[in-house]
Amino acid sequence: MDTRQLETLLAIVHHGGFAAASRAVNLTASAVSQQVVALEQELGATLFDRSRRPPALTSKGAEMVRTARTILQLANAAKSAAEGGEVRGTLAIGSLRTCAQSLMPVAIASLHERYPDLSFRLRIGMSEELMREVAAGQLDTALVADHVAVPLTLRWTEVLNEPLALLIPPGIDARATEDVLHQVPYVRYQTRVPLARQIDTEIARFGAEPAQIITVNTMAAVIGCVQVGLGFAVVPSVTLQDIVPGSLRWLPFGSPPIRRRLGLVHSPHSDRSEVLGALSKELAERGAAL
Fold this sequence. Notes:
The chain is α/β, with parallel strands linked by helices. It has helices at 3-15, 18-24, 29-43, 59-82, 103-114, 127-135, 177-183, 194-205, 219-227, 273-288, and strands at residues 48-49, 56-57, 89-95, 118-124, 141-145, 155-168, 186-189, 212-216, 233-236, 249-252, 259-266. Helix content is 43%, strand content 21%. Strands 3, 4, 5, 6, 9, 10 and 11 form a seven-stranded mixed sheet that branches. Strands 1-2 form a two-stranded antiparallel sheet. The protein has a two-stranded parallel sheet with strand order 7-8.
């Protein structure tokens, strides 16, 4: 058994099939299949049910996947120690879309200066799916909302406690939140994420039913709709970094301002604890400035 076989096994699971895994690990599909067969022969167990399309893990296969993740983590830690503690390899990070345009890239750039031999993989997704991928060992860490239940095997550390902002389209002179909610059309962020549900809930608490002009499923498009004057929107403060200064006016949403909490989730037994601590510090420092 060698680590290449284990890496191939995890690639098949992560990418959902032999063909997709072959592209990810830069091998032919035949070579991927041969590595799996060799591993099965060495273990004396069938890892995939090949009667299903795509092939599915057997119970022994699922057990081996968990073992492979542990072995590779230990191998990476040993390699790092042998190289004098230099941090190498790839750090797999998950992020919510609202933090992926500026906050997370800036933090990663700072990490790269500190750990020049480290490369990165950034995966954008929703809190629930990112949490599952961290638990499965497919991601080292992920920036997720605090609304999501954290498994006992993971640790969640707050790095961002940001206020929500009421973004006002050009030409609107309203100075109070209530005036905007009652007088200006509403650009609604509508998607299956905690932030969208939080915004809907807080608007309802104002007792307002703003006239909805459009629904959008990305925050970048929400801001674009406000910029062209379609209506107001409620956005997290982190997205204001991507707006040209002075191009839009905004108000704190609520009194006191309603806030959103985000945190990094990771395994407490990760061999990347030093890097994850540095990432957490970077995000917290930048988040404190919002």
